[in-house]
Amino acid sequence: MTVKTIILAAGQGTRMRSAMPKVLHKVAKRSLLQHVYDTSKLIDENNIIIIYGHGGELVKQTLSEFDAQWVEQKEQLGTGHAVLQADSLIDNTDTVLILYGDVPLLSKQSIDSLLVNVTEQSMALLTVNLDDPTGYGRIVRDASGKVLKIVEQKDASEEEQKITEGNTGILAVKGEQLKSWISQLDNSNAQQEFYLTDVIEMAVNDGIAIKTSQPDYVDEVLGVNNRKQLSHLERVYQSLQADKLMEQGVTLLDPARVDCRGSFASLGQDISVDINVIFEGNNSIGNNVSIGANTMINNSMIADNVEVLANCIIDNAVVGAGSRIGPFARLRPQAELAEQVHVGNFVEIKKSTVAQGSKINHLSYIGDATIGSKVNIGAGTITCNYDGVNKFRTVIEDGAFIGSDTQLIAPVTVGKNATIGAGSTITKSTPDEKLSLSRSKQISIQGWQRPVKKEQ
Ligand code: UD1
Ligand code: CA
């Protein structure tokens, strides 16, 4: 069975008060349309049609990697008119699924429960019972409960406005039926729009039954019309992510204060996450890892038994087993730490490997460096990797000890078990085992006196 998914995404989104088309606004760092597209991919990945309109070129450009057919709706004349634009792409034998580009949280389960209701004799409609159905089309049923039609808020009688069963807008139907109905739509209604919802009455007249189902929870079918609704769906999404993490055995000190804007390639056992932690990209986290407060982890691999203390940023980095990071450490892309490495406060590491058991505990910049095992880097050490034009590497071999406040002017190599005296500026490679230092001799001036303030 071919399921063609038509995603309606041509609406203007005026209430967002944004220069950007509404469907490009994001929940968990993914655009609204990306969420809907990703869910559609789970249904039938080769048959996705996106109806775009207002600011549509930008939508198309931004999401150009989508494997979808883009159809322009030049004027937004209503949801029925939007679907009509895709008429030539719909085959009679298709099952057509209509989704909204601004309803990001609809689940695959809800779509599946809709699709089973589509046959030659029936079409499927996703409805929702709402405490306050204002703004929604209402599902009008007869005394026996059979669906008769959908009436839009603006066209509804006072009696009809009391109906609390709302139309989500999500439906599925056989291509042949849909094609015949959308060609007959007119716009003689309060909004002078071509309403897709009018096909319900046409179906009933053609003897096609309307089978309804409901989503697992209401937030799944909520759309975004303004920034408040956007923030609501962000929180809903985050709370679902937090639930998933806890189901997988992660301790969250406060599930309301962790944000996952990406995915996990793997999650170990007994991970503990303090408050205000943000995960982005694709992370992999081992067993017994604890993550301190106010930490951001992006696209990184964290092995077993790692302790990340508060206020760290770990971005596209690798942290080996048993290592301890932070507080206030920043691991930048291609920082690769082996096992048992300690990185302390105000240490920045970029494009560098640090072998087993090495320590960089305070106030250092390590960039473009290869650091051996059991190296101790003193406070305030800087690898001077950049001459303003080119980058150069620093190599520090196993067992070396770098005294505090050392500048290593790359390219430079510090030999095995070498010691560098504090306060040195190292411009030449240093031999194994020896103490090297570059420091002017300390002197004390005899008879020197402090200046005194001049009389006026
Ligand atoms: C629609 C439904 C209503 C339902 C509500 C749920 C109709 C006539 N009404 O109303 O029954 O309760 O959704 O939110 O269908 N769009 C286009 N082109 C257009 C118009 C809309 O692509 O010309 C897209 C929008 O981008 C949006 C979706 O269709 O993704 C719904 O449009 P919207 O204007 O929000 O519909 P409502 O009037 O709220
Ligand atoms: Ca809407």
Ligands in the model, by name, code or SMILES, are: uridine-diphosphate-N-acetylglucosamine, calcium ion
| Overall average pLDDT | 97
**CA(first)-CA(last) distance:** 99 Å
Form type = elongated
Assign the CATH architecture of the largest domain. Alpha-Beta Complex
Q: How much is the radius of gyration in Å? A: 31 Å
Our estimate of the beta-strand percent is: 25-35%
CATH topology of the largest domain: Spore Coat Polysaccharide Biosynthesis Protein SpsA, Chain A
User: How does the major sheet shape up?
Assistant: 23 strands, parallel
CATH class of the largest domain: Alpha Beta
- Extended strand count: 37
Helix residue percentage: 10-25%
Class by SSE composition? alpha/beta
CATH homologous superfamily descriptor of the largest domain: Spore Coat Polysaccharide Biosynthesis Protein SpsA, Chain A
How large is the count of helical segments?
8
List low-pLDDT spans.
Answer: none
Number of domains: 2
